[in-house]
Write a structure and sequence with these properties.
The protein is α/β, with parallel strands linked by helices. The chain has 10 helices and 18 strands.
C-alpha cells in the first residue's frame, strides 16, 4: 500500500468513528396545570406582631401554608407601637429574629413592613396626631434593625417602605407633611425627607433586594422622574432601580384609593405597567367594588401590572368573589412567574474539556418575572456515582418576563470530568448559600415528570455520554 492509500484509509476510519459534530436530540415537554408552591410569589397570609404584645410564629402553621395551600409568602408586619420616642428593646429585636428563624424553618419568605400604629384615622375624624414617629427616630430604629435585616436577608422577599404614617402607608402622618390636616399635600421638601427613609432602607438591604412604595406619584417624586425604568437601567444598585410598588387597595375604586391620581389615571397606569417589568408589584384589596373588583378586571390588571403577590385574607368579600367568579385558580397559578419547559435540543455525547452545546426553550405563563437575583445551572449527574457537576448558565431570570425565552449556550466541561453517562438537570436555586441546597427555595418548572422534590432539581429527561478521546495515533514514516 502506498502512502496516499494508507492516509486515505486512515481518514475514512476516523470519519466513521468520530462524527465531525456531536449529535443532539430534540425534546418536547408536557406542561403541568397544578398550582406550584414556588418561592417569592403567589397568594400570601397576613401575620403580625407588635412591641407591646409580641406573638411568636407557629412553625407548624407556617409549614401547613406551604403543604396545604401552596403558599410560600407571608406578609410580616411589625408594629413598633409605644416606641415613637424610644429605641426598640433588645428583647423585641430578638423576638423578630426568632420569628424569622421560624419562617426559614418552614421554607417560606416574608414581605416585610414596619409601622408605628394601626389606629383607624377615620374613627377620630381624620384628625392628627396619627401616631407615627419623627424622622430621627425612624433613622435610629433602622440602624437598630440593620444587623437583623442583613443577617436574615435570605428570608426577605422584599421590604415595603413602611414606617411613615398609619399602617406604614405614607398617608396619615404627623411628620412627613407640612400640615397633617392635609395628608394629601406633600411638598418637595417633605418628599426629600421621605427619600431619606428610602435611601436608608436601600443602604441597609443587601444588593438585589428591593423596597416598595404605596403610590405611583411617590416613586416619581422621590426620584424626580416621569419616565419609567428601561431595560438598561433595571437591576442596577441605584435606589430608583431598587424601588418597586405595593397597592393596598387593588380595584377598590377607579383610582384604587389613590394609587393612581384622579387627573391622570391612565398615565399613571401606563407608567406602572412599564416599571413593574423590572420592579416588584403586589398588595391587597380593601373594598368590594364590582364590576371593577370582579374577575375580568382583576385578571387583566394583575397581568398588566405584573403582580407577584396578593393577600389571600383581605378583603374577604373580594377574595371570595374571585372564587365564585371562577378566576381564583388562575390567580394561584399565575401570580408572579410560572416557568415551563417547552422544548430542548441537547447533545448525546461530549468529551472532557470539550463544549456542551445546549438550547433550552422556556415559557413564562405567569404575570411577572422572578423578582430577586437567582442563579441558573445545568447539572450533570453521574448515573453510577451520583456525583453532580454544576455548569453556570449565562442568563438573568429576572428578565424572564411573560412570554418565550431561550437558554442557548456552549458550556465548557471540566477537563478532568470522569467518563460515564450523565443525566442533565436544570437547577434554579436560592442565591444564598444557606438556602441553595434546600428544595423549598428552588424554582419548580411547570412540567410533568420533571420535578425532583428531594433535590429541587428539574430533570430534562435526557442523558449525555461523556467519553475521553482515544489516544493519538502514531504513524511511522513509510518508505518513500
Amino acid at each position: 500500500m502506498n502512502v496516499l492509500a494508507a492516509l486515505l484509509a486512515l481518514l475514512i476510519l476516523l470519519a466513521s468513528a468520530t462524527p465531525l459534530s456531536p449529535r443532539s436530540t430534540h425534546f418536547e415537554y408536557a406542561p403541568a396545570t397544578a398550582t406550584i408552591a414556588n418561592p417569592e410569589r403567589g397568594f400570601y397570609h397576613y401575620i403580625e406582631t407588635r412591641a407591646s404584645a409580641p406573638v411568636a410564629y407557629d412553625v407548624d402553621a407556617l409549614r401547613a401554608y406551604r403543604t396545604g395551600e401552596q403558599i410560600t409568602l407571608l406578609y410580616c408586619i411589625h408594629y413598633l407601637d409605644g416606641l415613637t420616642a424610644a429605641p426598640s428593646p433588645q428583647s423585641f429585636l430578638d423576638h423578630i429574629t426568632a420569628n424569622l428563624a421560624a419562617v426559614r424553618a418552614a421554607g417560606l419568605k416574608c414581605v416585610l413592613r414596619f409601622a408605628y400604629t394601626d389606629a383607624d384615622p377615620t374613627a377620630n375624624g381624620e384628625q392628627p396626631p396619627f401616631g407615627d414617629a419623627p424622622p430621627a427616630q425612624i433613622a435610629a430604629h433602622l440602624e437598630q434593625l440593620r444587623p437583623l435585616l442583613q443577617a436574615n436577608s435570605n428570608v426577605i422577599a422584599l421590604l415595603q417602605a413602611g414606617f411613615v404614617g398609619t399602617w406604614g402607608e405614607w398617608y396619615y402622618t404627623d411628620y412627613f407633611v407640612d400640615d397633617p390636616m392635609q395628608p394629601w399635600a406633600v411638598s418637595d421638601a417633605m418628599y426629600a425627607l421621605r427619600r431619606q427613609v428610602i435611601d436608608h432602607e436601600v443602604a441597609i438591604l443587601p444588593p438585589g433586594l428591593t423596597v416598595a412604595v404605596r403610590y405611583v406619584e411617590a416613586k416619581q417624586r422621590l426620584f424626580g422622574v416621569t419616565e419609567p425604568l428601561d431595560a438598561a437601567a433595571a437591576f442596577s444598585n441605584t435606589a430608583q432601580a431598587r424601588t418597586g410598588f405595593h397597592n393596598d387597595c387593588f380595584l377598590a375604586s377607579d383610582t384604587d384609593f389613590g394609587t393612581f391620581r384622579q387627573e391622570q389615571i391612565e398615565a399613571d397606569k401606563a407608567y406602572l405597567a412599564a416599571e413593574t417589568q423590572f420592579t416588584p408589584m403586589g398588595g391587597e384589596t380593601c373594598n368590594p367594588n364590582p364590576p371593577r373588583s370582579s374577575c375580568a378586571t382583576a385578571l387583566a390588571e394583575l397581568e398588566r401590572f405584573h403582580w407577584t403577590y396578593l393577600n389571600t385574607d383581605y378583603h374577604p368579600a373580594v377574595v371570595a368573589g374571585w372564587t365564585t367568579g371562577g378566576c381564583r385558580a388562575e390567580m394561584e397559578r399565575r401570580l408572579g412567574y410560572r416557568l415551563q419547559l417547552t422544548s430542548a435540543d441537547l447533545p448525546v455525547a461530549a468529551t472532557p474539556g470539550g463544549a456542551l452545546a445546549i438550547r433550552i426553550n422556556l415559557e413564562n405563563t405567569g404575570f411577572a418575572a422572578p423578582i430577586n437575583p437567582r442563579p441558573a445551572e445545568l447539572l450533570l449527574r453521574h448515573n453510577s456515582t451520583g456525583a453532580v457537576v454544576p455548569l453556570p448558565l449565562p442568563v438573568e431570570p429576572r428578565r424572564w418576563l411573560p412570554g418565550a425565552h431561550s437558554i442557548h449556550a456552549s458550556l465548557a466541561l471540566p477537563a478532568g470530568l470522569p467518563s460515564g453517562v450523565y443525566e442533565l438537570l436544570l437547577h434554579l436555586p436560592d442565591p444564598h448559600a444557606t438556602l441553595a441546597n434546600r428544595p423549598e427555595y428552588a424554582i419548580q418548572l411547570a412540567n410533568l415528570d420533571t420535578w425532583e422534590a428531594a433535590t429541587g432539581y428539574n430533570r430534562l429527561l435526557h442523558t449525555v455520554t461523556i467519553t475521553a478521546p482515544a489516544p493519538g495515533l502514531y504513524l511511522p514514516y513509510l518508505n518513500r
